[in-house]
Amino acid sequence: MGMVFGKICVETPKYQVIKSTADYEIRQYAPSVIAQVTYDPAQFKGDRDGGFSVLANYIGAFSNPQNTKPEKIAMTAPVITQQSSAEKIAMTAPVVTKEGGDTKTVTMQFLLPAKYQKAEEAPKPVDERVVIREEGERKYGVVTFGGAASAQVVEDRVEKLKRVLEKDGFKIIGEYLLARFNPPWTLPAFRTNEVMIPVE
């Protein structure tokens, strides 16, 4: 019931707030280990979040874990979506979706629980599409907002955040991430979302 009303009951990424203003926070995120899958949404009837099931199977979210131990891995939050150009860009977070330009490929990532300090410590996936890798420290300008994260709302938040970050002298070094902390069945009014822009 708590998830319907927006309660976040899973592990979230560790970070340090470097700067906080009325418009945004600058956060330094700790190193982490991620599981990722890259795919064409057409394989999932056009669903850009279709890779979620592949990663959920790896950790055993809905059934037996599809890894060689097999070991159930705790789910984390948020789910993160990134739309970008066709080049591959390093990303972070529990789940990341990246849409390639004309190729329309998507990369989705789960941030694995902090108990996994190195990629080799994580259970090896059975599905060869799932890749385990390490992500170093990284810095983001972040704005938090509630409600449904529609394309227009996200675009408006991204443009405003870019403007204030640049005005305050921060150099933007990559594409934005959209972090969604709640499952789809959470009532929109109780959802927590974040737009994250990588900065130097």
TrEMBL record:
It comes from the Eukaryota. Pfam families: SOUL (PF04832). SUPFAM superfamilies: Probable bacterial effector-binding domain. InterPro entries: Reg_factor_effector_dom_sf (IPR011256), SOUL_heme-bd (IPR006917). Belongs to the HEBP family. This is SOUL heme-binding family protein.
